[in-house]
Amino acid sequence: MRESGHGCMPGGRTAFDAMTPSPTPANPCLNICRMDPAGKYCQGCGRTPLEIGRWPRMTDVERAQVMASLPSRQPWRSRPAPVS
């Protein structure tokens, strides 16, 4: 059944919503490309080798999931810098 008169699209989106791009998660690469001693995460960005390789082909949702997981992979980034 079609909704009429409100310009609604499937999922309750409007034509304006469809034309407005959603923000794409930024690439977390810091150009410090070396793996941790266990070979699990990049010491610069915190991504796995698979995530790094797939990044250009990931959806925005997949990228956002990776970005959300990075703080737990890099706990040192949330600590204050040592005072000298």
Helical residue percent band: 25-40%
Fraction in beta strands? under 5%
- Write down the secondary-structure element order: HHH
Radius of gyration: 19 Å
What is the overall pLDDT average? 77
Structural class: mainly alpha
**Alpha plus pi helix count:** 3
**pLDDT under 50 segments (min length 5)?**
1-11
Distance between the termini: 68 Å
Shape: globular
| Total DSSP E strands | 0
Please summarize the sheet with the most strands.
none
Layout: helices, strands, pairs:
Elements: H1 15-19, H2 49-54, H3 60-73
Would you write up a description of this structure?
- By secondary structure, the chain is mostly helical.
- It has a domain at 27-74.
- The chain is built from three helices and no strands.
- It is globular and about 40 Å long.
- Mean pLDDT is 77; it is low at 1-11.
Distinctive features:
84 residues; single chain
